[in-house]
Amino acid sequence: MSKAHFGLVGLGVMGENLVLNAERNGFSSVVFNRTYSKTEAFLKGRGAYKAISGAVDIKDFVNKLERPRRILMMVKAGPATDAVIQQISPFLEEGDLLIDGGNSLFSDTERRVEELESKSFGYIGMGVSGGSKGALEGPSMMPGGTKASYDAIESLLTKMAAQVEDGPCVTYIGPGGSGHFVKTVHNGIEYGLEQILAEGYDLMKRLCGMNCEAIADVFQFWNSSEELSSYLVEITEICLRTKDPEDGSDLVEKIMDKAGQKGTGLWTVVSALQLGASVPTIYASLNARVMSSMKSQREKAESILGSKSFSNSNLGSISDGMAPIMDAVTLSTIASYAQGMEILKLASEEYNYNLHMPSIAQIWKGGCIIRSTLLKRIQDAFKRDSQLPNLLLDPWFANQVTLRLPGLTRVVSIANQAGVPVPCFSSTLDYINSYSSSRLPQNLVQAMRDCFGSHTYERIDKTGAFHTDWIK
Ligand code: NBP
């Protein structure tokens, strides 16, 4: 029997769809899953009548692959990935290549690349985005590791990836854990975008008294605009129009208001703080999930701290896409991307990733969860100026700030007066107002620090470090 081109470990939601994608693109495959019954079920079900075979154990799996072997691991990040590497390593030979497509912490990937490349195996840490549908039809993929290892799988990945007008949604990201780092930041941006859309929905519901159908109409309007046309806006409209089959009411209103997180949002914020990147919009979205998880405390607090009175404020109409809310959503969306790109820029310098910003925007234009028409603008902005310090300084984005800042300001003010939390909108407003202030009050912070701790301060009229004996 001829040997297979490609091997997959981990028949979860993603693995199952990715191997079907590879096979459809001409790569005969072998699959292995820790729990063999899943392999059997897959081969009898979606994997039947295809160039896909199964393996009962790791040795059998490795033996069924042509050399050099190309093996994709799609298992839970963390110890499960290390366990698979440990099981498979004794059977690998020089030149074989392992790809980790899970959501691994980038520092784990750095360690694994170093360990495995030193044994003459190739190792790629690859972020994959697009959910189950993207995995099957064409995801966005962010592979990092050595260039030689990437070259060995380029033909496979470019065929499997989503395709946009200027090419496949995959590119060599850079060395070490850079692929997983970029995927982590992608997820951080995703957290931001999801919370921003949720805040828009909440304002329309609680301040404007709109039902899900009317709010869905606004999302439809937004999805037809250049600024907001995106996968997440598209699926939000679908979610809002979906009815509970049991009684025909709006399904989203029956869903518990607690959002989970699996780590990548947290890692984005931690990395941003470590690198000195200012990411308040992304942080606000992470914190909103944390706050949402405190359901029973929030219920108690509402009874103690009092319920708020909501006014019916003029926040536009469906025919103008609720213009001020659209301004708030657009600027917060731009801020999420700007903050994510800022983390990438700093990481590129700090970790010597040598990231190519226009290419990252390009591979996010299709297949992935944060795909949007704005990414074309982001790609163009970084093509025009590869050293752009912040997206907001690009002329097109600066013009968006000029046009939409009054709307965002009004929305935050109305929401604050009504007691409706809008953490991403508020953080974005502060972010833009801070970033566009040439003088901030940190002169006073510096004075305090010098007063209590003799930390010294710089002056605007003289060079050097100064100390004052403040408390005489
Ligand atoms: P699932 O949770 O559906 O599947 C997990 C897989 O990991 C199963 O095949 C499971 O085997 C295997 N596994 C586990 Br758990 N522990 C193992 C161990 N110690 N040794 C060997 N195999 C083990 O995951 P998924 O949603 O397909 O995600 C897979 C990876 O892709 C994750 O890292 C995830 O974060 C990432 N990711 C997911 C998405 C998404 O939309 N779901 C998107 C992008 C990336 P078993 O059947 O024997 O339990």
Q: How would you describe this protein?
A:
The structure is a single chain. With 472 residues, this protein is α/β, with parallel strands linked by helices. The protein folds into 3 domains: 6-176, 3-Layer(aba) Sandwich (Rossmann fold); 183-435, Orthogonal Bundle (N-(1-d-carboxylethyl)-l-norvaline Dehydrogenase, domain 2); 441-472, Up-down Bundle (Single alpha-helices involved in coiled-coils or other helix-helix interfaces), CATH 1.20.5. Helix content is 54%, strand content 8%. It contains 19 helices and 9 strands. It has helices at 13-24, 36-44, 58-63, 79-88, 106-117, 131-137, 147-160, 178-206, 212-223, 231-241, 264-275, 280-292, 295-305, 323-350, 357-363, 374-384, 395-418, 423-435, 442-453; strands spanning 6-9, 29-32, 52-54, 70-73, 97-100, 122-129, 140-145, 163-164, 167-168. The strands form 2 sheets. The protein has a 7-stranded mixed beta sheet, sandwiched between helices. Helix 8 packs across helix 11, helix 8 (178-206) packs antiparallel against helix 14 and helix 12 (280-292) packs antiparallel against helix 18. It starts with 5 loop residues before the first strand and ends in a 19-residue tail after the last helix. The model has no long low-confidence stretch (mean pLDDT 96). The site of nicotinamide 8-bromo-adenine dinucleotide phosphate has 22 residues, from helix 1, helix 4 and strand 6.
